[in-house]
């Protein structure tokens, strides 16, 4: 739900409500603690580069701070979701194998009758 400010080139994000996110969202890392405002790349004096390249050390420090705020999944969650992906991929492949076998068998029978 981002809005662009009138003619300013500034993007405003949804403001925090003060409510705690659901436990599932916190566990899965779906909740973000990003600030309420993201500025455009254009600086006040019209320079296209803006302040993005001003201080690489400050940028790295901010990145480390934001990475520290991330709700990383536990080892158990990673293993469970990985197992679920493999199970679902196996079930999907078995489903399509079965559908392919049925179609192939049906077409073979129809072509035998006609030929």
Structure notes:
By secondary structure, the protein is mostly helical. It has 3 helices and 3 strands, in the order E-E-H-E-H-H. It has 2 domains: 1-55, no CATH class; 73-115. Helices cover 52% and strands 5% of the residues. The radius of gyration is 26 Å and the shape is elongated. The model is unreliable at 35-43 (pLDDT under 50). One of its GO terms (biological process) is intracellular protein transmembrane transport. The chain crosses the membrane at residues 78-103. It is a single-pass membrane protein.
The number of strands is 3
Sheet with the most strands: spatial strand order: 1-2-3
Distance between the termini: 62 Å
Query: Number of helix segments?
Result: 3
User: What is the beta-strand fraction?
Assistant: 5-15%
Order of helices and strands: EEHEHH
Give a summary of the structure in a few sentences.
This protein has helices spanning 23-28, 56-69, 75-114; strands at residues 3-4, 11-12, 37-38. It has 115 residues and is mostly helical. Strand 1 (3-4) and strand 2 (11-12) form a beta hairpin.
List its traits.
115 residues, mainly alpha, three-stranded antiparallel β-sheet, 3 helices, 3 strands, 5% strand, SecE_sf, protein transport, cell membrane, Protein translocase subunit SecE
């Amino acid at each position: 739900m981002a809005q662009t400010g009138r003619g300013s080139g500034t993007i405003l994000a949804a403001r925090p409500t003060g409510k705690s996110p659901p436990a599932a969202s916190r566990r899965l890392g779906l909740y973000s603690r990003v600030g309420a405002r993201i500025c455009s790349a254009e600086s006040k004096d019209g320079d296209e580069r803006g302040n993005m390249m001003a201080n690489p050390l400050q940028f790295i420090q901010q990145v480390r701070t934001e990475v520290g705020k991330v709700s990383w999944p536990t080892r158990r969650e990673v293993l469970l979701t990985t197992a679920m992906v493999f199970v679902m991929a196996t079930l999907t492949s078995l489903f399509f194998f079965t559908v392919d076998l049925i179609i192939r068998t049906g077409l073979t029978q129809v072509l035998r009758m006609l030929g």
